[in-house]
Every structure is written in structure tokens, then in C-alpha cells.
Amino acid sequence: MIPADAPLEELASTLAKLPADAHSEGNFSVQWAFSQGKFQYTPVFSDTAELIRDLLGDIADLGYRSFTVQISSSAEQEDSTAGRENSTAGQEKPGDHQLPRVRYQVQCSRRTLYASGDLDSVLRQLMENREEKLSPRYDVSQYTLHLRCSVLCTEIEYSAREDGVPVDLDELKKKIQDGDMYRTMIQLFKDKTPQRIIEWKKAFQKGDVQEAHRIIHSLKGSAMNISALRLSQLARRLEIALKIHHTDDAEKLLDLVEKELQRVMDYLERNTP
């Protein structure tokens, strides 16, 4: 199971260990390679790993049997436009240019099915179905397909883990040395944050994305104020998804936020006055 909030390096490493999985009959092979740079990105969308693997499965259905996947950050690899490039490119959404991207370069070979006349139209349909989240581009020749996917990410300081301490109380005590203020801040978080989740759901159900964005932005700040780093990071991802109008993924991301919030609340109950 790939953690939905895994940063790029962890995501790529986990993908590399997974067996090939496709819809297609017969065997095919996948080789994964990824940059070990110092960046720590995590995809904005919670289903990125599944989207990539499903796309490879659909391509395998077209008769390709060998895949080489190179994963890197946008800072490490320029987007190549050499050769004949096909695209169903849509309009850039607000905020896209402010976010880092991760490039998935996929070399597919050993094609055994489909006449070349059919292949291009089938590939175009596959790419159109993934345009919103993967921004796929491809070059195709008689036996080889070169695919480029570009996934929006957010840069994070990924020092807090799901199996670790959800709130760094030692760091909070360093920031707030006044004991009364420390206790007041913790109590305010415990009193107000669950209500923010309820308000977020009401705003989202009404289609008020702007209000939902405002609420999760506030929750993100509150989490950072008490040194609940992972909760703040997850809220940041949801904030970005709303900002670029990917509301279809917002409920999945909220589920991650709620689970982490419960960990934070339980921890505060056990470890604070």
C-alpha cells in the first residue's frame, strides 16, 4: 500500500518494489529509476500512484511489453519538446506555475499488437482521460512510445511521519515559554479545530470553494502554530487542490486531514493538561 501522502522519494522507491500489474493478458516488465536529489515533493493528488500504474496497464493492453520509468523533479530535468509531440493540453489552472512538478518519463517498447493506423487514436483517448492530473504528452514510432507525465506537487519538510509523534510539544514549548499561553493555545486548538472540519464540509457541500479554501488555510495555520507538522502539511495539500479547482480530489485529501487530526487530538489529550 503506497502512502497517499508519501513524498516523491518514498513514492518512487515504493513503486519500484511493486510487481508489474496490468489489465493485459501476458507478461510485461517495468524498470523504475528515480532521482535521489535533495528535494522532497509530494503529489497534490492522493491517487497519483494509482493513476500512473493504471496508465501503464492500459498501455500494456496495446501490446507494449517493456517499460522504463524515470522519475525526477522539475528542477532536475527540463521538459523536452523534441520530436513529434501529441497533447490534449488544456488551459493552465490558477496557481499551477507556483507549484513544483514531478516528471514521469516512460519509455515503452516491444509492441506486439495494433496496426500503426489505430494506435495514435487509441493513445490520444488514453491521454485525454488523464489530462487533468497527469498532463500526459507522447511521441510514438512504429515500435516505441515515449510518454511524459507532469504531476503537480507541493514542496514539504517531511520530518513528521504517520507512525511518529503527531505534535512536537518540545518545539512548541521552545516557541511559547509562558506556561499559561502554552496551555491556552493547546486548549483553543482542541476547542476550535473539530468545528472547522464541520464548517469545511458544509462549505464544500454548498459548492463554496472559496470558503472551504479559507477554512482549511486557517486550520493549516493552527496546526503549524502548535507544531503539528504533518497535519499542517496535509492541510496544505488540500488547500492547493482547492486553489487549482481540483475539487474531485478534495474529499480524499480531507479524509487524510481528519485521520491525522484525530491522531493530534488523541495525543494532546494524553500529553497535555
Automatic annotation (TrEMBL):
Which GO BP terms apply? phosphorelay signal transduction system
The record, for SUPFAM superfamilies, names: Histidine-containing phosphotransfer domain, HPT domain
Question: Which residues does the annotated region (Disordered) include?
Answer: 74-101
Q: Which UniProt keywords apply?
A: Phosphoprotein
Q: From what superkingdom does this record's organism come?
A: Bacteria
Database matches in InterPro entries: HPT_dom_sf (IPR036641), Sig_transdc_His_kin_Hpt_dom (IPR008207)
Q: Which GO terms describe its molecular function?
A: protein kinase activity
Query: Where are the Phosphohistidine residues found in this chain?
Result: 217
Please name one Pfam family that this protein belongs to.
Answer: Hpt
The answer to whether keyword Phosphoprotein applies is yes
Domain HPt, chain residue ranges per copy:
178-271
Name this protein carries in UniProt: HPt domain-containing protein
- Organism expressing this protein natively: Salinispira pacifica
